[in-house]
Write a structure and sequence with these properties.
Blueprint: E1 2-5, H1 13-23, E2 26-29, E3 47-50, H2 58-66, E4 71-74, H3 84-87, E5 92-94, H4 101-116, H5 119-127, E6 145-149, H6 153-164, E7 168-172, H7 178-182, E8 187-188, H8 191-197, E9 200-203, H9 217-222, E10 227-231, H10 240-248, E11 252-257, H11 279-286, E12 290-292, H12 301-320, E13 327-328, H13 335-338
Helix pairs in contact: 1-12, 4-6, 10-11
Bound molecules: 1,4-dihydronicotinamide adenine dinucleotide (NAI).
């Protein structure tokens, strides 16, 4: 089992090397992302192992199939970067449905606390022996209302963390969890109510046609003045221009962004010596009440090990045991949903 591993970062290699050697999977590591220009690098491999900013569109799928590549092994949960409908019947797509919901949910809370208690400002000030507290007033989370969009694995962990802070929880999900509602953990409401009543809104749903720009000018208009927006899910859930306008007009009190719609050419790379072409991102980063991290919410030791373990399990299951419960199929969110074992 030979896999071309795209968009490799140094922190990916130790766990994949160790587990690959143990289970008979060879990885050839490429720093470049997979896209139409780089797909030839997959020649001679059984599969490709890809991450969130690799592009697996129709052209890439066609070429992979021509090259004899049978499997796309995503080492992430989200799969909005794969044309699933086009892939069906041509190439198998495996993913890691969960690796550490705690990593992402805890990062969301870390960003929220940093932002509203001005920790990012305090860190800079005290390093310069500036011990003034002017402009550092925050607010208590206790008693505030947080609106969670998407109550899956990560959303639920975030809900529990927020409960620990004594917050009121509102939630919206296309497929609400009966168990959550019946346990009294959350109150499901429609999106308009969530926008109108939340002090803080945190996004934990996948990026789909329906959720694209769920935070935009119209939804921000329905929000409370001073609302805090947290996005650790996918960049295109938020219309960044609308968010910037909201920050400028003081409608948005703070924004915590681990993802950004146009992140693919910037995030994960050191661009410190370059001129940033993206004016919207540059302006957002310049704001004192905006915190941007570069898609780092997943990055914990535990998550990296789980990602490597599940990816290698998926590959070995597919090639040796003829089964992979983590195969994706556009007819359902997973092979389990469409009850067909291997999807085609
Ligand atoms: P999950 O599949 O467990 O939960 C997603 C939830 O969103 C489900 O409850 C689903 O019913 C709901 N949903 C689906 N369509 C919806 C819609 N139109 N409106 C509202 N809710 C909808 O996924 P999980 O593991 O909780 O991950 C959530 C998202 O977090 C992923 O889709 C991914 O984009 C992102 N993520 C980000 C990471 C990071 O490092 N920043 C790492 C891992 C995931």
């Amino acid at each position: 089992m030979n896999f071309a591993f795209f968009d490799t970062k140094p922190y990916d290699i130790p766990a994949f090397d160790r587990l690959g050697k143990e289970r008979g999977v060879q990885f050839k590591y490429y720093e470049t992302k997979l896209n139409e220009d780089t797909v030839e690098l997959a020649s001679g491999f059984d599969g490709v192992c890809v991450f969130v900013n690799d592009t697996i569109n129709a052209a890439v799928i066609d070429r992979l199939v021509e090259l004899g590549v049978r499997v796309v092994a995503l080492r992430c949960a989200g799969f909005n970067n794969v044309d699933m409908q086009y892939a069906y019947g041509k190439i198998h797509v495996l993913r890691v449905p969960a690796y550490s919901p705690y990593a992402v949910a805890e990062h969301a809370m870390a960003m929220l606390l940093t932002s509203i208690r001005r920790i990012h400002k305090a860190y800079i000030r005290t390093r310069d022996f500036n011990f003034s507290l002017n402009g550092m007033t925050g607010f208590d989370l206790h008693g505030k209302t947080v609106g969670i969009i998407g109550t899956g694995k990560i959303g639920q962990v975030f809900i529990n963390i927020c409960k620990g802070f004594g917050m009121n929880i509102l939630a919206y999900d296309k497929f609400p969890s009966k168990a959550l509602e019946e346990s009294g953990t959350v109150k499901y409401v429609d999106l308009d109510t969530l926008f109108a009543e939340s002090d803080i809104i945190s996004l934990h749903c996948p990026l789909t046609d329906e959720t694209y720009h769920v935070i935009d000018e119209a939804s921000l208009a329905k929000c409370k003045r001073g609302v805090v927006i947290i996005n650790t899910s996918r960049g295109a859930l938020v219309d960044a221009e609308a968010l910037l306008s909201g920050i400028k007009s003081r409608k948005v009190g703070a924004a915590c962004l681990d993802v950004y719609e146009e992140e693919s050419d910037l995030f994960f790379n050191d661009n410190s010596g370059h001129i940033l072409e993206d004016d919207t991102l540059a302006r957002l980063i310049s704001m004192p009440n905006v915190i941007v991290t570069s898609h780092q919410a997943f990055l914990t030791e535990e998550a990296l090990n789980n990602i490597a373990e599940t990816t290698v399990d998926n590959i070995v299951g597919f090639f040796e045991n003829d089964q992979c419960p983590n195969e994706l199929c556009f007819r359902g969110s997973s092979a389990e949903d469409c009850k067909s074992g291997k999807c085609f």
